[in-house]
Amino acid sequence: MKNGENDRRRVIDKRRQNQRLQAASGRRVRCVTSNGERKRDERSGRTLASENDRKEKRLCVQRTAPLIKSIHETVNQTSTQAPQLNK
What is the mean pLDDT of each run of 10 residues along the chain (87 residues)? Predict the structure, then answer.
């Protein structure tokens, strides 16, 4: 057995160990079953989000946060000005 092969095996073992720990702590490792359907949470019945889904949602929130903030500021400004216009 060569040294590089031993390192690779150690990395794979570590990865498997991490997956077992995640599964034991309640986090599902695989979110898609072998037939391509989404796995469901036993308690809530909702489909489980994969790590990519969570990452995509986080990026989406980061991208839209400034826009939403500016909309809120505009709405707040117009709502404070509105009573004065009706006089």
Answer: 75 78 59 63 66 71 81 78 56
